[in-house]
Amino acid sequence: MSLYRPTGLRRRAATLGLAALLGALAAAPAAFAAPDPTAVSTTTPTHPDRTAGARLGDVRVLAHFDRAAGQVAESIALEPGGGVVIGMIPARQVVRVARDGALQVLATMPLPQDGGGTTPVIGTPVVTGVARSDSGAVYFLYSSGQGGLTGIWQLPPSGKPRLVVPLPADTFPNALVIDGRRNRFLVTDSTGGRIWQAPLSGGKASVWSADPALAPAGFFGANGMKIHDGAVWATNSDHGTIVRIPVTKDGGSGRAEVRATGLEGIDDFDFTGRGSEILAAINQSSKLVRVGADGAHETLLDADDGMQGTTAVIVRGNRVYVTNGANLAGNDPTLMLAKLQRR
């Protein structure tokens, strides 16, 4: 999730400022601006080669969002044909962006009866992670504190969203992954430092892992998450790490292993298709970085390329989708598309 603050002595002041910002965004009209038709053909240069590994070319903006209306782009789920579904944080919305950049609001979540002020850490209700099953069902996460709406929601093709997996009020569900092999959801809990699991059919959730490597250091711990090569991989925003948790034969969790460090403010990530090579969104410093199998990392895109509070990345074939929330940096949240060049 894109909500991040500096560490150290500035922690309390930044957290309070973030809460005020989100409150203002949540109170803004939930109207969507039409995408800029000229943006689809906009290109930006990438940095010259530095080491072997994945590169990005043909970087362009697919859609602009309205930050004042709460359109802080957070997460991405791909749909057939090149479209995507995105969670918008303080707007409490799930939107679809077509391949040509056209926007469609799929759902707007109601405010809880208590207003959502008890939402952990940030004090305002938000939509975070999104996922799409092989059958085409769209799911998303809503965090509302004691308002009774926190959990995994399903978005039917027609009709209102329905809660399929309730989660405790003190959780902050952030990333949502569907583990098709074991017919279950996996959800990171950023403030609790846990990963939850729940049946894909819906029902009661249980803690899958509470490894100390997932714990926060005052704000957000476990954040982004993917399943790869027999393990669950997750980021820890506070500690700036990527951890790998092996999946045991019975589907349980093994001991976490830190695979990369020095990534302060890391949010979401995805694998490039070259072993364990990763593209990671660094929210705090507005960067997209490549993380090698040895944990070494380098910047591929930064503010000069249009990165503003980078939140999520997803790779399919040679196409890379990146969202910028522009929450703590800049004022132009976007969905960007780039061509992956493997070397």
SSE layout and pairing:
Blueprint: H1 11-27, E1 55-64, E2 73-78, E3 84-88, E4 93-97, E5 103-108, E6 126-132, E7 138-143, E8 151-155, E9 162-166, E10 173-179, E11 184-189, E12 194-199, E13 206-209, E14 222-228, E15 231-236, E16 241-246, E17 257-260, E18 266-271, E19 278-282, E20 287-291, E21 297-301, E22 310-316, E23 319-324, E24 334-341
Antiparallel strand pairs: 1-24, 2-3, 3-4, 4-5, 6-7, 7-8, 8-9, 10-11, 11-12, 12-13, 14-15, 15-16, 16-17, 18-19, 19-20, 20-21, 22-23, 23-24
Could you give a short description of this structure?
With 343 residues, the chain is mainly beta. The protein has one helix at residues 11-27; strands spanning 55-64, 73-78, 84-88, 93-97, 103-108, 126-132, 138-143, 151-155, 162-166, 173-179, 184-189, 194-199, 206-209, 222-228, 231-236, 241-246, 257-260, 266-271, 278-282, 287-291, 297-301, 310-316, 319-324, 334-341.
- State the helicity in percent bands: under 10%
Number of strands: 24
Q: Overall pLDDT, averaged?
A: 86
Radius of gyration: 18 Å
What would you call the shape?
globular
Largest sheet geometry: 4 strands, antiparallel
- Element string (H = helix, E = strand): HEEEEEEEEEEEEEEEEEEEEEEEE
Percent strand equals: 35-45%
User: Within the largest sheet, what's the order of strands?
Assistant: 1-24-23-22
Low-confidence stretches: 3-50
Number of helices: 1
**Amino-to-carboxy terminus distance:** 30 Å
Structural class: mainly beta
